Amino acid sequence: MRSLLLCLCVLLISPLAQAERLKDIASIAGVRSNQLIGYGLVVGLDGSGDQTSQTPFTVQTFNNMLTQFGITVPPGTRIQMRNVAAVAIHADLPPFARPGQNIDITVSSIGNSKSLRGGSLLMTPLKGIDGEIYAIAQGNLVVGGFGAEGADGSRITVNVPSVGRIPGGATVERAVESPFATGSHLVFNLNRPDFTTAKRVVDQINNTFGPDVAQAQDGGSISVRAPLDPNQRVDYMSMVENLQIEQGNAAAKVIINSRTGTIVIGQDVRVQPAAVTHGGLTVTISENIQVNQPNAPFTDGVTTITPSSQINIEEGDSRMFVFNPGVSLDEIVRAVNQVGAAPGDLMAILEALKQAGALNADLVVI
């Protein structure tokens, strides 16, 4: 029993290899989503639509729509459309999407409409970068935000009422050709290119399916031989993408966000022998104005103003601490915490260590 508990303790203390599925660390080249965009009208708003005097394109779009239905607006007619808003629609067309399937869309006001709540999007074509129509959007909006305004001009807004979504609001009309079913090889692109990870992916695939099935093209791409039959290819890729891969450790980096004071130190960051001292020197200068009046009133004496400056210098309690060779992340954090360094102080210490050549990591300031 004692030996079993000892073994369990060793397992809990020892670092475990973090293996992940290949599908979580890589993507198949060509199997990707495509962005769609469209322009249309939202109607049925409760007086929160565009102000036509400031958004003439809304009136023009509305007139064009009426023309398609055989209705001609007399020239010079001033139209007030408080219940209509011009909007932009965007969506992602997922890979392997086929005609007849539905996709979610996001609708955003591009005029001065205050809220799209309660509105309905009229039929709008969604186009790709090539100008072709790939989906048709229409439906009732779901808006998470709302706003209220008083007669005195005061208002309150919760979330963003000028943006809404329509789940399944677009119907796919055209499929995007995918290279998945063509060619004798498929390429896996690593989400984080790394030569060690690429080698481990190649070794794992070849050990499982046979030699020379996978070949590394570079540190971020692995070419895998696949069956030509589409059904067999799907079964085969299902097995490949579920292989467990242990990723290589990323390069040692220290990330510093100077705006928020956030500092992230990677696990492989090491410090060479160095001694560090960091103390604060505070200089305070205060100006006091003194007014001197003549002793006797109604005399030729002149009132004078004499500035008086007071300078106070305070030096913080600075301590020196030593980094031994090969100091780990845990020891760096512990040493800095012992001297009570703030995030700004830690930034200065890390930058000084990098300049001294004692920090074996890339210092990235964002």
UniProtKB/TrEMBL annotation:
GO MF terms held by the record: structural molecule activity
Signal peptide: 1-19
Tagged with keyword Signal: yes
Pfam families hit by this protein: FlgI
Matching InterPro entries: Flag_FlgI (IPR001782)
Subcellular location: Bacterial flagellum basal body
One GO cellular component, as annotated: bacterial-type flagellum basal body, distal rod, P ring
Gene Ontology BP, a term: bacterial-type flagellum-dependent cell motility
Keywords: Bacterial flagellum, Cell projection, Cilium, Flagellum, Signal
Subunit-level organization: The basal body constitutes a major portion of the flagellar organelle and consists of four rings (L,P,S, and M) mounted on a central rod.
Function: Assembles around the rod to form the L-ring and probably protects the motor/basal body from shearing forces during rotation.
HAMAP family from the UniProt entry: FlgI
Family under the similarity heading: Belongs to the FlgI family.
Name of the protein this chain belongs to: Flagellar P-ring protein
Originating organism: Halopseudomonas laoshanensis
Organism ancestry: Bacteria, Pseudomonadati, Pseudomonadota, Gammaproteobacteria, Pseudomonadales
Gene name per UniProt: flgI
